[in-house]
Specification:
By secondary structure, the protein is an alpha+beta fold. It contains four helices and 22 strands. It is elongated and about 135 Å long.
Length: 337
């Protein structure tokens, strides 16, 4: 009987150990889990840099050009003087104006005294009032003439100032149209200037591209292949008009930081990333199983989902598509349970 009891207790211990180990064997293997990411469609827009603004510098007076301070490619200095015209005749007119003002001032002083004397005589009934009226009229006309001369002096002074043609400081000369000794007429262009301190890249976007740009994270990045640099950019101008021919919107991106060279004609590339309209997702190659020329994904609950392989994606991932697969869903590697 003793040996039967030993056999019974040994069997009971083995059964308990088996039952205890049973659930552990039934647990699924803990392998990698992959999350589907949305596949992005990247569109590259190409443009070329140009100046932020352009100015046609014109002369407001006529005269012979005495000197030009800047040539093509030069940057206008802080004083802003671009060219100087001959102002000899204006200066002579100012001198003549000053002499005439002094003459009229003397005339006004004399008539003021004469009017005062005749006013006293009229009050004493020693002179006729008509002569006083005539003197007062002459005094009034002399004062008006003096005022007109002062106004004329202001006009001549302003004209004298405008014989110095000024340009915005910091702008660059694109085209020089005048030389020393040349006669310049009123309204004639003397130079073309551009503000290259800030560069802009003009682009044309369709409405869908514009919506992607509007929702894109800031700052926007523009790549300059000639300089091998990616620079931050901002939208500077957006035309509210819609081109019915191209069906696009005119937009300008502004660049003013990190530029090695401030000039036009630099090639600029701007990339727009948007979710693939086909609904494709990105998954590592380890998550995709191929069987009989078909491709499958395995959900965490073991369900198999057939997908269409669209091609390769970034970082070795695969682009797959299926109505049952959405971004954010999780999948197992083939063979996991």
């Amino acid at each position: 009987m003793l040996w039967r009891a030993k056999i019974f207790w040994s069997a009971a211990v083995c059964l308990a150990a088996f039952l205890a180990a049973g659930p552990a064997l039934a647990e699924p293997s803990q392998g990698p889990v992959f999350t589907a990411r949305p596949a992005l469609q990247v569109q590259t827009l190409t443009g070329f840099t140009r100046e932020r603004a352009r100015l046609r510098l014109v002369s407001e007076v006529s005269g012979r050009c005495l000197k030009v301070l800047y040539d093509v490619g030069d940057t206008v200095g802080p004083r802003g003087v671009f060219a100087v015209l001959d102002d000899t005749f204006v200066a002579l007119e100012l001198e003549a104006n000053q002499v005439e003002q002094e003459r009229l001032a003397s005339r006004v002083a004399y008539l003021s005294k004469e009017t005062g004397r005749y006013r006293a005589l009229v009050q004493k009934h020693s002179e006729a009032p008509s002569k006083l009226d005539r003197l007062e009229d002459e005094l009034s006309q002399a004062r008006l003439a003096l005022t007109a001369l002062k106004t004329q002096r202001k006009v001549l002074t302003e004209r004298l100032v405008r014989h110095t043609i000024k340009a915005p400081a910091g702008w660059k000369v694109i085209e020089r149209l005048v030389e020393p000794g040349q006669w310049v007429n009123v309204g004639a262009a003397v130079a073309q200037l551009g503000d290259f301190r800030t560069l802009v890249v003009p682009l044309a976007l369709d409405p869908r591209q514009y919506e992607i740009l509007r929702k894109a994270p800031r700052p926007l990045m523009v790549f300059l292949p000639d300089q091998g640099a990616a620079l931050p950019a901002a939208v500077s101008r957006l035309s509210p008009a819609f081109d019915p021919v191209t069906r696009k919107l005119a937009l300008e991106l502004e660049l003013n930081k990190g530029l090695q060279e401030h000039r036009g004609g630099l090639r600029a590339e701007f990339k727009l990333s948007a979710p693939d309209p086909s609904g494709a997702v990105l998954l590592p190659a380890a998550a995709v199983q191929e069987r009989y020329q078909e491709h499958w994904l395995t959900r965490e609950n073991g369900q198999q989902v057939r997908v269409v392989l669209l091609g390769s994606g970034p970082e070795g991932a695969l682009r797959v598509s299926s109505p049952q697969v959405k971004p954010g869903q999780r999948f197992l590697a083939p063979g996991q349970k």
